[in-house]
Structures are given as structure tokens and as C-alpha cells.
Amino acid sequence: MFKLQTTYDPAVWERTLVSLPTAHALQSWAWGEFKSRWGWQAERLLWFKHDTPVAAAQILRRAIPRTPWSFLYVSKGPALDYRNPALTAQVLADLENYARRTRALFIKIDPDVPRAYGEPQPGQPLEPVGQATLDLLAQRGWRFSPEQIQFRNTVLINLTPEPEALLEAMKPKWRYNIRLAERKGVTIQPGSAANLPTFYAMYAQTAARDGFLIRPAAYYQDVWQQFLAAGQAELLLASVEGQVVSGLILFIFGPTAWYMYGASTGQRRETMPNHLLQWAAICRARERNCCIYDMWGAPDVFNEDDRMAGVYRFKSGFGGQVVQGLGAFDYPVNRPMYWAFITALPRLRAWMKRRGEDS
């Protein structure tokens, strides 16, 4: 029913991907090219009904050191209309066959499909499409992955209302802080590739302050430069009295903007630069004709013990809606080896980090 093809043409891929539901920046050609410089290989598959493209999957392959095996990852994909069960089943079947044919140990996918809306509640019903997708994955032998690489949950802001309505949807304290930042002289300026070392220095400070691990500077310089050059990212910097105190990088693809990276020095926090910075990013996304602003990440568990509790409090004040995603699923090709691999995965990751190979 659906014809499968491989494409090697960036223009065809980008044009096709952006036309599909659930198109994501992590399925873009630029993301695949970036990852190919950090130990991965990318292949792009397209599905057609007659001559119309209906699905796409950028498959990243990585060899497992000192083994004949590799693993595959479709980050935030595949892109398709998950309301179509026949198409979803066909894409899953083709990905399973691809994994077998290429001697992969397993393939991981990140269907960008809502499981439910709002913070989790007891007895909360699942979205019909999310439930149907979960059922199909279970029927076909896919399993919820023990390694969730991307955020499963997020906060989305609908950008179609006018700016006044977007401000009105925020918590009152957030509106106040935005205006306070303006009164205190906080300014927001676009950045360029020349500002990336400054941004990374702030990012490293943020990581040390908040206790999360980051990769080497070269990794981030590569991805940021790749997306800035492609016109699929923007750097915004907040300054107080001429001193840069915080910044963020937006990824933009199709109708969506993602608040992908944020950083700050922690200085002049009383001027509320991060509130104005987010508002500037929201406005900039609207100027780029985006319909959705994805704040990129919400807690797995919505309580104060979650590592993202503080970040979530900040994000939740901007008037967005929590979206619970399905998360990542694995299809094991060789089940005994797959179980051995995921059991050894923490040790393997530590070994790869020591060698600088974990990306």
C-alpha cells in the first residue's frame, strides 16, 4: 500500500519532512549531518502513497564498540499521521525489517505523540491516538525503553493568539517580572556564531550550578553553528548594563520553535532577565511564523523531588500546556543480546564517556 524509498537529497528531505505531521528538528537533515560527525551514520527513509509522501524516518546508526552489532535511533520520529493505523503499522514493520537487515541489535524510536494533556491525575484517560499507538507498539513487540534519551514530557505554548493574549495567559507574577526586567534596563539582542563561546561559558556555569553533565565545547559549537548556518536556530542574549547575563538558543523547524538550550551566569537575577528573555523568544518565534513554542522538557514525575521541579516551575508560569508524551520505545532484534546490552549499558556509557565517544 505504501512505497518505501531512501533519499540522499537534502532539499527533498527537508521539503517532505516539513509537510508531515509531527515533523521535528531532531529529524532534520542538519541534525543528521551534525550527528554524522560524532560517531553516527544517518539514513533517511520516505514512505509514499501513490506519489504523495506520507511518512519519514531519519535513522541514526551507531556501532557498539568491540562487537559486530550496532543500534539504531529515530530521534523524535518517525514523522507521520499516527491517526492512520495502517500507515503506522506499515512504518513500524518496515523499521523492524530494516533493523534485521542491517544487523542491528535493536532500534529505538521517539514517537512525538501525546499520551495525555495536563499534569498526571489519578484515572486520567489517555488520548485516543496515543492509546492506539501504545497498543500497536505492544502488539508488535516494542517495549518502553529503559533509556529515555529525549524528554518524554514538555510544555507547549500556542502562538496563534495575539501577544496581549499570550501575556494575559501567563501567571501574574510572570507578567510583572517581564515588565520589571524592562524597567531595570535588561536588553535582549540577537547573537551570532561569534557569541557562541560566551554562550557555552554560561552553559558550563549553569551545568555546574544545577548539577547536570554537559559535553565538550566542540560538540555544542558544532551543533549550534550547524543550525545557525542553516537558518534553523537563533541565539538570543540578555544583558544588564552591557554585561551578558543569560541566553538561549531556539531551534526552528516548520511550524515549531524549541527552547533547546538555556544558560545564565546567575548574576543580576534580581532584574529578572530570564523572564524577558523567554518573552523575547516567544515573540521571535511568532515573527518566524511558528504556531507552537515547545519549552523542551517537563518532569517525569510532577513533584518537588524530580530533578526538573525548579525548571518546571519557571516554565509553567508562561501559560503553556503540559503534554505527556509516549516516550522512547525499543524493538529488540536479538532479545538475549538486547537484555545483556541494556544491563551493561551504564558501564558502557561510563567507558564511552572516558574515551570521549558518548554523543
Entry summary:
The protein is α+β, with helices and mostly antiparallel strands and 359 residues long. Helix content is 38%, strand content 27%. The protein has eleven helices and 16 strands.
Give the helix/strand layout.
Layout: E1 3-7, H1 10-18, H2 29-36, E2 41-49, E3 52-63, E4 70-74, E5 79-80, H3 85-101, E6 104-109, E7 114-117, H4 128-139, E8 143-144, E9 153-158, H5 163-169, H6 172-183, E10 186-190, H7 196-210, H8 217-229, E11 233-240, E12 243-253, E13 256-264, H9 273-287, E14 292-294, H10 309-316, E15 321-325, E16 329-332, H11 335-354
Parallel strand pairs: 4-6, 13-14
Antiparallel strand pairs: 1-2, 2-3, 3-4, 3-5, 6-16, 7-15, 8-16, 9-14, 9-15, 10-11, 11-12, 12-13
Can you describe what's shown?
This protein is of the alpha+beta class and 359 residues long. It folds into two domains: 3-146 and 328-354, Aminopeptidase (3-Layer(aba) Sandwich); 155-323, Gcn5-related N-acetyltransferase (GNAT) (Aminopeptidase, 3-Layer(aba) Sandwich), CATH 3.40.630. 38% of the residues lie in helices and 27% in strands. The chain contains eleven helices and 16 strands. The strands form two sheets. Strands 1, 2, 3, 4, 5, 6, 8 and 16 form an eight-stranded mixed beta sheet that branches. An eight-stranded mixed beta sheet has the order 7-15-9-14-13-12-11-10, with helices on both faces. Strand 11 (233-240) and strand 12 (243-253) form a beta hairpin. Helix 3 runs parallel beside helix 4. The longest helix has 20 residues, at 335-354. The protein is globular. The protein starts with a strand and ends in a 5-residue tail after the last helix. The model has no long low-confidence stretch (mean pLDDT 94).
